Each structure stands twice: as C-alpha cells, then as structure tokens.
Amino acid sequence: MRSVRLPFLPARARFEHDAAFWVLLQQVVVRGFVAVKFLAIGRILGPEAIGAVSIALLAVAIAESLSDTGLAQAVVQGRDAPSHDELGSVWATLAMRGLLIGLLLAALAPFMSSQFHLNGSIGLILLAAVLPILRGVASPAYFIVTRQRGFQKLAGVETSAAFTDCAVGLVCALSGAGAYSVLIGLVAGELLKTALTWTTMSPRPPLRLSFSGIGHYVNFSRWIWAGSVVNLLLNQFDKVVVAKLLGPLQLGAYQMSSKLAQMLLADAAIAMSQYLFPTFSEHHRRDVHAARKLFRRYLMLAAAGLALLVIVLRFAAAPLFNLVLGPAWLTAVPLFKIFVINMAIGAIIAVLVSWLRAAGMPKVATHASIIQAIVLCVTVPVATHLWGVTGIAWAMTVGLGSAAGWMLYRIVREA
Fold first, then answer.
1. Are 333 and 364 in contact (CB under 8 A)?
2. Strands (E) located in 194-244
3. Which of 359, 224, 263, 28 is nearest to 351 (CA)?
4. Rounded to whole angstroms, how far apart are CA atoms 204 and 181?
5. Phi, psi of 116, deg, nearest 5
6. Membrane-spanning regions, if any (predicted)?
7. Contacts 24+ apart (CB under 8 A), 317-320
8. pLDDT, position 4
9. Are 124 and 52 in contact (CB under 8 A)?
10. Is 140 exposed, middle or buried (0-12, 13-18, 19+ CB in 10 A)?
11. Taking 70 as the threshold, does the pLDDT of residue 12 lie above it?
12. Residue 48 pLDDT class (50, 70, 90 cuts)
C-alpha cells in the first residue's frame, strides 16, 4: 500500500489528486476571482454599496455560526467513514438547518433593514437568505472527498463556482444592478457548487428526512458548534458595532480594508487549512510523532512568510489603495495597516486550529476563542472611547494574539 506520508520539500512536483499543489492552485484561482470581483465592484459602486452588501452577508454569517452543527469536520476527522445511512442523516440535518436559516432571515429582513440603516433595501437580505439554503442541500459527499484528500476534485468544484460568482457579479454590476450584483454572483456560484457536489462526487446520500445514526459525531461536533458561537462574537462583533452606529458608508470602508488584508494574508492560510486538516488527521492516525513534526514545519514556514508580508504591505498601503480602489477609499488606509497584523495572526491561528482538530482537541480552539472574547470585552469599550473605530481594530489585534498564545501553549504542553 502506498504511504500517504508527504515529504515537506518533495524532490519532484506532485500532481496526484491528493497533492498540496491542488490546494494552492485552488487558493490562487479562487481568491483571485474573489479579489477581482470585490475590488472591481468596490471601485464601481463605492463604500456605501459595499457596506450595504456586507450587512446582508453579516446576517447570514451570524445565523450560520449560531447553528453550526460541526458535522462536516466530524466526518473528516472520524476514524471510520460514515455509512450510507449515516451520510443520509448528515444531509438531512444540514438541509433542514439551511432551510430554517433562510426562512428566519427572510422573516427578520424588515427588522434588520431598519436597524442597520439600509434605507429600504430589504431585497438584499432576502437575496442573501437564499445562500444558506443552497449550501444546506449540497451533497455531503463533499466531506467524504475532503476526508479522502481528493484535492484535485475539490479544486475543480471551487474554482468553477468562484469563476461563475465573479463573472455573473461583474456583468450585473456593469449592467447597473448596484449592490445586488454582489449577491446575485454569490447565489449563482453557490448554485453551481451545489449542483457539482451531486453530479461529480460520490457516494451520494439517500434523500430522506432521517436524523438518526450520527450521535457518535456529537462529542466532537459540539466543540465545533461552541467554537462557532464564540467566533461569531469575535469575528462579527466589530462589524455589528460599526454598522449599527455608523451605517453602511463607514462599514464599507471598514469592511474593504479588512477584506483586502484578508485576501493578501489570511486567505492563503485558511485555504491551506483545507489541505492541512485532513492531512494532519491522516498522519495523526498513523504516526503521532511524524504528524507533530510536519505541523511544526508548516507553522514555522507560515510565521516567517507572514512576517515579511506584513512589513511590505504596511509600507505599500496608501499606493495600493489608490491604485486598486481609487482616492475615495484612502480613508481606509489606517485601518488596513492594522488589519494586516490581524490577518497575519489569523493565518497562524488557521494552522493551529487545523492541528488541534486533527489531533482530536477541538475544545482547545474553543477555549482560545473564549479567552479572545474576554479580552475583547475588556479592551473594546476603552479602545473605542479613546480611538474610535481604530481602537476597535487594535482591540481585535490584542484578542487574536491572546487566542494564538493560548493555543500554542496548549500544543506545547500536550507534546
């Protein structure tokens, strides 16, 4: 049997279906399409339209975080692959969750529109409510392919969806659809992705409303859910405050500076975690010592590369915004300089979380999120009073650093 062990620096390029090459290719292509879409639409529409879309997507993120089942990660991490019936129960659970989220968002759309100063753009929230429904009915065979490290197939699905999202969104923006163009593109991309999970991936689950037989995933997935709830506060709290107090215009500048920093720094590590989680899991099942060694190598490489990128991006911030987005966005430059630090720490956290979940310690990541939340509760009020929106960004930095420090401490202690 061929070993699954991957050399850290292979002597020759590997292009098999489970090679890291496909994850990196997916990252470059997908994030490239996302960058083109958001930056081009941001330049066309300006900060206020981006802020309005961000509020609609914020509602989706909140609802999905509060109802995260953790089943996807549990299927990937479990020692045994799910049976045909168990896979059907996974699909039924996720489909019902997506439907309930969509209906809840639609019902709350008028309230959210008034609370976040959308000036009657209730249709943005209604359109965003379609996204969790499409994601929920996708085939859970996607998780099986991830478990089997079928990165070539995953890359094909993700890049196809990203291209559709970008192309449809840009066409709509140039046709005068305004803020709706972003959401129309997202819906088109998710629709294609869902269709591809059913047509290109196997095994296909039975389509019936059965929720039994997956109780053994609960012990693992409950920590994923708890982490998602805490991360809801950590990742969306600042955006809710800015949207509620300052409205779409200021949120647009805040969100774009964060998004650009994320594209340039955190997205690479987050996408790489799609490779690292199943790879660490497979190595950990076979040889714990070798898995720890592989983790340390990836962590050191990520830390060195991110430190260099932070320095470069902070120096190039103003010219970058002026060139890519135009003078209307220059007020976001000070925030961007803070967010590149935030996103670099977030990228390190993505590697740490991949290891913790693969090693069967998801509760450590949840504990780190709780620590981060406590730090934010202490620092955000003071920082906001003294420095306003910039203070919120710096408070996020302190919180992220605290979470990363706790995870590193626990990993070293468990070694």
1. no
2. none
3. 359
4. 33
5. -110, 25
6. 49-66, 87-109, 121-145, 166-188, 260-277, 298-317, 329-356, 368-387, 393-412
7. 320/260
8. 43
9. yes
10. buried
11. no
12. confident
> pLDDT digit string (tens) for 163-173?
999 999 999 98
What is the C-alpha separation between 376 and 203, in angstroms, rounded?
44
Which amino acid belongs to residue 296? R
Phi then psi dihedrals of residue 201, to 5 deg: -120, 150
The 8 Å CB, 24+ separation contacts for 283-288 are 283/4, 283/5, 283/358, 284/358, 284/359, 284/360, 285/79, 286/4, 286/5, 287/5
Burial zone of 104 (CB within 10 Å; 0-12 exposed, 13-18 middle, 19+ buried): middle
Three-state DSSP class for 388?
Answer: coil
26 vs 105: CA distance, rounded Å = 31
Among 254, 264, 281, which Cα is nearest to 360's? 281
Q: Quick one: pLDDT band at residue 220, thresholds 50, 70, 90?
A: low
Residues 80, 213 contacting (CB under 8 angstroms): no
Question: What is the total residue count of the chain?
Answer: 415
